[in-house]
Structure formats: structure tokens, C-alpha cells
Amino acid sequence: MKTILITGSAGFIGFRTTQLLLEKGYDVIGIDNMNNYYDVKLKEYRLKELTKYQNFKFFKVDIENLEALEILFKEYPFDGVINLAARAGVRYSIENPFIYITTNILGTTNLLELSKKYGIRKFVLASTSSLYAGQKMPFKENLPVNTPISPYAASKKGAEAVAYTYHYLYNIDISVLRYFTVYGPAGRPDMSIFRFIKWIDEEKPVVIYGDGTQERDFTYVDDIAKGTTKALETETGYEIINLGGNKPYKLKRVIELIEQYLGKKAKIIHKDFHKADMRATWADIEKAKKLLKWEPKIPLEEGIKKTVNWHIENRELIKEILV
Question: What are the residue boundaries of the NAD(P)-binding domain, all occurrences included (predicted)?
Fold first, then answer.
């Protein structure tokens, strides 16, 4: 493989995955619609970092736009597609479910149809641990995930189903990666760790939905990028694969670590637990170990420290970002 299309390349996971592939010598064509779901300044920061690489080209394209996508498929001989473009966020999906369906299902279908048309044999699809709501932990890939509790999760389930159809009909090799609570430098400002660091550093109240005992299988972004790259480079047929930290931590523990590395104390405000949130997540990663030869390397303590250090180095940028 040499030339890879990465959608959502200015997004959090897309940015780090693109960087990793560029450093490995791939030619990467990155696309992103640069939407304003969260502050575009952060996407522009990531994109500026990527444009330092000679083997990277960027186009502002929406995966919902089939005609614009096809221009790229005609122009570049892609060896693989990594679809990281998505509408993310459980709570916002309840307010505006329509864009989740069009981006996450229609957009994925557009990419799969063009992959079929132009003979691209490898496709990696980003999915989510949100599908496991209500299941027994640790979450295994073979659990029935037929009752999503948010439009976001439902749209990801739909994307997975469409992907299987294209594998079955056209023999496209597809790896579906269910990510577990990804965090790290230049993360999404709508996610808890970015917000907690910013609020504590700026001595603003930290809002927690629930009592802080809810648990997440936090996974450092570099580990996720490496797992995604391994999926690109591995023939799997059609497989759903968990990528997670393999150990759940309470939100309280995360806040303690942030306080420690910032040297500041959090002022916490508790609000009611949100109905569409999950109480806990925990990935079973045996399949990733077996198929991808992958497991996470960065423990939570190290990952939070790296993330806090990035925040400190980029305070001026972060002050301007709304959360």
C-alpha cells in the first residue's frame, strides 16, 4: 500500500492517524468538511501541523457529496480508505439526529460505493463503544448490539451494517474498529478530558453529569492511531474489532490526575446523569491482540500527563476555544 484516503483528517483521531501514516512513508490524501460542531480553530491547528509533510495533500470535501468524492477517486489510485469522518457526540445527536444519519450512514455508503467502483480492496471504518450500552462487561465484539440508546450509536450501527453488505457482495476487505473513549493532545473540546483540563486550569467550575463514579475505558490517541494503521495493513475479511485501553477508570480518578499535573484544585458541579450516557465501558481486546497484534501501550497516568503538558504548551490557543 502506498496512497491512502483518510476522511476526517482534521479531526482528532484522523489527525494523529494521518501523522502516523505520513511518518511511515505513505502518501495520504486527507479530506474534511471542517464543520463547526466544535471550534474550527482546533481543526485548523491540526491541519497546519499536517501540511508540514510533503507526502500529504488536503481537500475540503464532505463525504456526503458523492460527486466531489468521485473526483478524488478518479484522480488518485487509492490503495485503501480509512473512514474517520463522522458526526460524533451522544448528546448532540439527540438534538439533531438527521446529520448523524446522513454523515455516518450515507457518507459511509458513498465511500463504499466508490471503493467498489474503483477497485479498492481495503476499507477501515471507525465505529464506537457506545453500541454496547446495557451489555455485560468486558464488551466482546460478538455481543448483540441491536438496541442503541442514542441516534449517534444507531447511525454507527447502520454504517457497520452497510459495510458488511459491501464486503458480502463485493469482497471488500473491511475492518470495523470500535473505539473506546479516545483522549490525548489536541483532543475534541466536547469530550470530558479536554474540558476538565481547560476548566481546572482556568479555575472554572467542572461540570460532571452524575456523581463521578461512572467509568470509561480511556484509550490514548497514539494507541488508537497505531491500531487503526495495523487494521489498514492487515487482511481481515470483515471483522469488528475493539480498540480500547482494557481497563476502566472512574471520572474521579481522571480529575485527580489532572489536578496533580496542573497543580490546581477542581471546583466540581454535579448535574443529573444523562439518560443516553453509559454508566461504564470496558473493552475486551483479545481479538485485536490476535488479529492485529495490537494492544495499548500508554497507561492513563502517562496519557493524562502528556495531554496536560500539551495543554500547557498551547494555552493561548485553548483560551480561545469554546467548550
Answer: 5-307
